[in-house]
Prior knowledge:
Elements: H1 2-26, H2 35-39, H3 41-48, H4 52-91, H5 93-130
Helix pairs in contact: 1-4
Transmembrane segments: 56-81
Membrane topology: Multi-pass membrane protein
Protein name: Protein-export membrane protein SecG
Amino acid sequence: MLSLLIGIFTLILILICVLLVLVILMQRPSADAGMGASLAGGAAESAFGGETGNVLTRVCVKCIVVFFVLTFSLFLANIYLKSTEKASEEVSAPTMAKELEQLANSSEKAGEAVKKEAADAVQKVNETADKPEAKSDAKVPAPQAK
Length: 146
C-alpha cells in the first residue's frame, strides 16, 4: 500500500516540477533578456493580462511549497519503507541461519565426495602409467622436406 502511494506522489511531484519550470519560464525577466524572454516572455501577458507578475509569483511560490512538502514526505516514506523491510528481514534471520547451516553441511559432504573422486582418478592414472602397454615406444615419423 505504501509503495503505491509513493508511486502516486512521485508522479504528482514530476507534474509539479514540469509546472514549476513552465511558470518560471513564463515570468518576465528583470532585464528583459534571457530564457524567459526568448521562450515564453510574452505568452504570460496574453494569458493572464497586465498583472502577470503577481499571478505568476503566487503560482510559483505555491508550486515551490508543494514541491518541497512532497519531496520531504517522499523522503520520509522511503525511509519508513526501508526500515519495515529491514525489520521483516530480521524476523526471518533465524530461518536464514538454519538454511546457511544446512548449506554448509551439504557443501562439506560435497567436498569430501570430490576429494574421494580426485584420489580415485590419481590412483587410476598411476595404475595406467605402471602398465607396459600404456608406455608407447612407437616412433613418430619425421616431417618430410619438400
